[in-house]
Prior knowledge:
By secondary structure, the protein is mostly helical. It has one domain (8-187, 206-398): Up-down Bundle (Growth Hormone, Chain: A). Helices cover 82% and strands 0% of the residues. It is built from 16 helices and no strands. It has helices at 8-27, 29-40, 44-72, 75-92, 98-113, 118-127, 132-161, 163-182, 201-213, 217-220, 224-253, 258-306, 312-341, 346-375, 379-397, 404-408. Helix 3 runs parallel beside helix 6 (118-127).
Amino acid sequence: MKKGYFYGYNIVASGFLIQGVTIGAMFTYGVFFKEFQAVFGWSRALISGASSLAFLMMGVGGIVAGTLNDRMGPRVIMTVSGISLGLGYLLMSGLTAPWQLYLLYGGLVGVGFCTHDVITLSTVARWFVRRRGMMSGLVKVGTGAGQFLVPLIASMLISGIGWRSAYLVIGGVSLGLLVAAAQVLRRDPQGMGLLPDGQHIDAGKQKSRKEAHGISLGQAVRTLPFWTLCITEFAVFFCLLTTIVHIVPHARDLGLPPATAAAVLSIIGGISMLGRIVMGSANDRIGGRRSLLVCLAILISSLVWLQLSDRSWMLFLFAVVYGFGHGGLFTVMSPTVAEYFGTAAHGQLFGLVLFSGTLGGSVGPLLAGYLYDRNDSYSIAFFLLTTLAVMGLILILFLRPVSENQQKD
């Protein structure tokens, strides 16, 4: 049989672009952080609170987006969220008051954030089975590319044209690219007369049908593995989203100039691409549990090192180690959910797991900002991140497959 081009690769390419634009834009918040302090005199807790609200909106919206994606597909949902994100950044150029920061970034941009993982990764999970981890990793490489490039671009734009004009550029480009990428998405291969991985219809029919059924939402929420993954994701996002918001201000506190501090964030993004590819491919071979354990161990070691880092080279080394674990953790959870529960309700289930994570991501940056304002130091906050990462590792050590009895309950 002659093999033609598989449309699933278009899904991966679209997901790559969506991830790069969305998370690249998200990572610029730390770059603008000091600008808000300098212009408005706002506290770190106040500024961090807007990012916490955005992360909370991302989690709540992710549940809605995941449910709608299971029922109607990703194209319309991604288009709406892309418009919301781009419009939010465009309007940020006129920022003058805290309520505007919370409405525009916490609200509009937060809605824009809600689809980047649950839509792209849930869609990829339906288009690929054998290479699900690797393809999820390739999509998440887009995140790393965005993390690497966009903060540097934002820093240069701020230096060249000012932070208000920089927001206009970021908003306009984001809106155009996200809406364009959304038009490529399709819910699943069956809707186009295809099967996952580009299989022949006869060879792949039985496996595809089994994968598509999986476990329902009602069945999954009555299992211990589901809640183990939710609590672990809470701890992971608490650590990861707190780090991306506060690492640039922390680097500036240590005396690094703005461009160098932004480079720490970019290194995290660049190295995370390696973590996404390696751990995504590893997930296909060693499974979700072992992949999560590897990533959590790397995260813990990097956070311990961060507490000792007081020079630029130490921060750059932190960025290298942390970046690998960061990329891996953002990649392996979606295929792990599919591995344990199937894909019939993957959008809903992954959306709920992500919501648990964004609860942690909402609390973490705000609490870190509050602790800094109280102590003029991130030391307590960084110790808390390490503790939560250890808790996540312990939980995954006890993660077990869903039993057949649990699937029938």
